[in-house]
Amino acid sequence: MQQNLLEEYTDFVDKVTSEASKSSDKMRERINYLNSKDIEMSRLLTAGIGLSGEVGEFNEIIKSRYRDNFSYASFSEGEKMRIDLALMFTWREIARFKNSANTNLLILDEVFDSSLDAAGTDEFMKMLNTLTENTNAFVISHKGDILYDKFDYVVVSTGHFSVPFIPEYKGMSSFPGRIMHSHDFRDAEEFRDKNVVVLGSSYSAEDVALQCHKYGAKTVTIGYRNNPMGFNWPEGMKEVHYMDKIDGNKAVFKDGTVQEMDALILCTGYLHHFPFLPEDLKLKTHNRLYPPNLYKGVVWQNNQNLFLSKL
Prior knowledge:
Blueprint lengths: L1 H19 L3 H12 L3 H9 L29 H23 L5 E5 L8 H11 L7 E5 L3 H4 L6 E3 L6 E2 L13 E4 L13 E5 L3 H12 L4 E6 L12 E5 L1 E5 L2 E4 L4 E3 L2 E4 L3 E2 L22 E2 L3 E2 L5 E3 L3
Parallel strand pairs: 1-2, 3-16, 5-12, 6-7, 6-12, 7-8
Antiparallel strand pairs: 4-13, 9-10, 10-11, 14-15
Helix pairs in contact: 1-2, 1-4
């Protein structure tokens, strides 16, 4: 029985190492196959079968209370994750020794966001720290609070199109109509036959204003702060200079224009928002192309191990 299992295992090792460098799907398939093997295969693995086909000495008896017979499915999700990660690194080493298939790039997507507990996270970090200097490991995670002190470099790629910038105008709280940010704009149909004021002078303001006009808004008035877009707008659309206040259902602009308004759409940009970073690492800036203290718009000058992209 043991000899048959030994032959089956050595055949399996030869097959998986030959396929490891060809397809990650094949690797996952073989790992799932190994996970499904019965207790006898597990005992052989524990006994230390070498690639040469010889069974190592192992005289101790392993028992687990209330688990005299258990398989991979008997483990908790956290334990399964530890086993899967250990197997992944094991087969990576086997492929390197057997076929010279050396993987110098590892991308670990949300591994730390799954079922790993704090202890499992610490143990996995020890495994990562055993990698050679020629191996680059990229960890993608949403749990910055538990990982920020565990890596040599941190890349923040959360972007800044999530938290809208909402300017305050006198009379805004008592305006009876609809106020929204372009972030929440979905369908221009709701503005049919309405007087719409759009604040902004960039791409989103242009898109939102034209969509509202296309879908039958009664009037579309675009308020700009610094420079108008200056297009030859169709009838029913116009640009005016900077909204000063809201008076009931009217928008009052600095150039003296007073416009009836059923809806106000703010195309006013976004805030940089990094709640997962400590205060000394948070980028503090307005919405601009090249924020201060970022070399080439990427490297944080106060700590050059921090990179901010997608800003």
